[in-house]
Amino acid sequence: xxxxxxxxxxxxxxxxxxxxxxxxxxxxxxxxxxxxxxxxxxxxxxxxxxxxxxxxxxxxxxxxxxxxxxxxxxxxxxxxxxxxxxxxxxxxxxxxxxxxxxxxxxxxxxxxxxxxxxxxxxxxxxxxxxxxxxxxxxxxxxxxxx
Length: 146
Fold this sequence. Notes:
By secondary structure, this protein is α+β, with helices and mostly antiparallel strands. Helix content is 25%, strand content 32%.
């Protein structure tokens, strides 16, 4: 079950990435219910030397095989096997700022640091208003329609 990422209850594959920058996710240990909230980029910026000049290019990340950055979660995945973990995409994001915003929002809303139900040991974010400008515009539209 836990070998693939899911989004809205369906398998999420590389052809569904589109123009998204990355995602915020939840990984659930199916043996004990513990969870982890994090974020992951689809691509990373790399450089290589071409004719003496640095050339930038976009390289795919390891998102398909990724199981979080928590040492305790990683240890459990190795001990229990990938099949005992569910990997769910909570938010697809268009920018690094959106990813940081939604990751922190999910972590605070779920009180991950106050509960033993979560592997998370830190909430680390630095988000500027300009990073989430597009979300602000969406929120204004929602409020205006109510």
